[in-house]
């Protein structure tokens, strides 16, 4: 006798496929896509320890150790963001690593420390305190999300892309700005070839190959650079196979008030940029970041920063360049980025593996960066299209916030007369543009009486997700 479905079976709803953010892809695709994220952010992770280590006067071996430690802690922080524990972690495809905003104050701490052997312990102590304070402040800080309607988020996302583009232009000109061949034809040619390879792959291929076009472009550019004499395999031959960032390798953390205050300012800047990045990424992956998501993401940022000095790393924050990679490839799985975090941990434990990424010439990274960072700016423009730019108020908000945010890019010394602490904030176009956009939105759209309701961009209630503006006109 044939079995008949029970009423319970008939009532069972069909399985709902997971959101692309929670999707687990095939192993090969996870690995190659995760490696692509590492390639996109590698230069940004290793630059701060190289600069600070050089200021301290570390030997080549110690400098390699410090760089490996920052890779290792970036992987741990990325795990916190993507996989999450308890109420910690945005659980979005969000890459974390050493924030460049801390480079200036860290080098200032080094300069003010008489015994250079104490400089790194002082920095580590300041980062620990700033991270813990930021962790406690996350529930309050995240409430600022209600002041980020599309007119604000679109402006900030656009600024993120525009602010990153000069980085790729600098990479395209060569590895050493002081070199006699910086910006020479061979470097620009390599960058152009890499960009062309990525564009051709995106135009004429399909499926998986199309999605990893940037990774293929980086490999192709590196191979093409060999006859140019630009590809250097020395980092691989000189690197150790195994190495572990032993806790407090440079000494126990020291706590100095001035250093702590300066790093707390950096933490505020970092949390502001991370909030903007989470809002941008939420829009791109179609899972808008509400107050709870941002709170959890900020906790991961700050806790990752507090733990990082234990393994000789610096303050961690979101990496905006990887948002461009998500926007371009449309691979939205957070588990892909978690795999990238695994690669970072392995690189921290295996210096030879880390050196493989170091082989990629800067001009090749620059060519790929044009696509990555430009994609972020394009995503911001898409958001602005939905922000109601037919209203004069919103046009002014976008115009002024973009102008203020672009100042540090076009005139880097514009704020040279301001105190060093103030410049930590002012020299970040993303932070200044974000603050201006929020304040102007409040001024033009929320303060005062007698406003035309149709011209108002209302702030969101706490916890409300960012979405496209709803049609409010009544049906007839």
UniProtKB/TrEMBL annotation:
Arranged from A to Z, the UniProt key words for this protein are: Cell membrane, Membrane, Transmembrane, Transmembrane helix, Transport
What InterPro entries does the record point to? NCS2 (IPR006043), UacT-like (IPR017588), Xan_ur_permease (IPR006042)
Protein's cellular compartments:
Cell membrane
Q: Which residues form a coiled coil?
A: none
Q: TM spans, by residue?
A: 39-59, 65-86, 93-113, 119-141, 148-172, 184-201, 213-230, 250-269, 335-358, 364-384, 396-418, 424-444
Which family, according to UniProt? Belongs to the nucleobase:cation symporter-2 (NCS2) (TC 2.A.40) family.
Designated name of the protein: Permease
What organism is listed for this UniProt entry? Streptomyces spiralis
- Tell me the lineage of the source organism: Bacteria, Bacillati, Actinomycetota, Actinomycetes, Kitasatosporales
């Amino acid at each position: 006798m044939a079995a008949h479905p029970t009423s319970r079976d008939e009532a069972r709803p069909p399985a709902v496929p997971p959101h692309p953010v929670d999707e687990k892809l095939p192993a090969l695709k996870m690995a190659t896509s995760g490696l692509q994220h590492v390639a996109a952010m590698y230069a940004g992770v290793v630059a701060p320890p190289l600069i600070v280590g050089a200021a301290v006067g570390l030997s080549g071996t110690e400098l390699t150790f410090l760089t490996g430690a920052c890779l290792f802690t970036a992987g741990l922080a990325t795990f916190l963001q993507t996989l999450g524990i308890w109420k910690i972690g945005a659980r979005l495809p969000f890459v974390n690593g050493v924030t460049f905003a801390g480079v200036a104050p860290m080098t200032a701490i080094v300069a003010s420390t008489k015994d250079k052997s104490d400089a790194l312990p002082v920095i580590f102590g300041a980062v620990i305190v700033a991270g813990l304070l930021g962790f406690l402040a996350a529930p309050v800080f995240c409430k600022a999300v209600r002041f980020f309607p599309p007119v604000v988020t679109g402006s900030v996302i656009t600024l993120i892309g525009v602010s990153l583009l000069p980085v790729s232009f600098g990479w395209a000109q060569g590895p050493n700005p002081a070199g006699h061949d910086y910006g020479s034809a061979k470097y620009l040619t390599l960058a152009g070839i890499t960009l062309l390879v990525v564009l051709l792959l995106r135009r004429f291929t399909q499926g998986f190959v199309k999605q990893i076009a940037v990774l293929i472009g980086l490999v192709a550019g590196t191979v093409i650079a060999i006859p140019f004499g630009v590809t250097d395999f020395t980092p691989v031959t000189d690197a150790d196979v195994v190495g572990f960032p032993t806790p407090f390798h440079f000494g126990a953390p020291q706590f100095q008030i001035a250093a702590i205050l300066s790093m707390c300012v950096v933490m505020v800047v970092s949390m502001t940029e991370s909030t903007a990045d989470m809002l941008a990424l939420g829009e791109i992956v179609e899972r808008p970041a509400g107050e709870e998501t941002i709170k959890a993401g900020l906790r991961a940022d700050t806790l990752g920063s507090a733990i990082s000095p234990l393994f000789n790393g610096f303050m961690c924050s979101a990496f905006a360049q990887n948002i461009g990679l998500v926007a371009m490839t449309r691979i939205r799985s957070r588990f892909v980025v978690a795999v990238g975090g695994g690669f970072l941990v392995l690189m921290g434990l295996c210096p030879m593996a880390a050196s493989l990424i170091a082989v990629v010439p800067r001009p090749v990274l620059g060519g790929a960066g044009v696509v990555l960072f430009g994609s972020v700016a394009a995503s911001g423009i898409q958001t602005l299209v939905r922000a109601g730019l037919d209203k004069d108020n919103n046009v002014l908000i976008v115009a002024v916030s973009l102008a203020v945010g672009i100042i540090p890019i076009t005139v880097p010394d514009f704020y040279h007369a301001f105190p060093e602490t103030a410049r930590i904030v002012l020299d970040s176009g993303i932070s200044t543009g974000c603050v201006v956009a929020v304040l102007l939105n409040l001024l033009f759209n929320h303060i005062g009486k007698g406003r035309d309701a149709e011209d108002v961009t209302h702030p969101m209630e706490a916890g409300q997700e960012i979405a496209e503006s709803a049609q409010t006109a009544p049906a007839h």
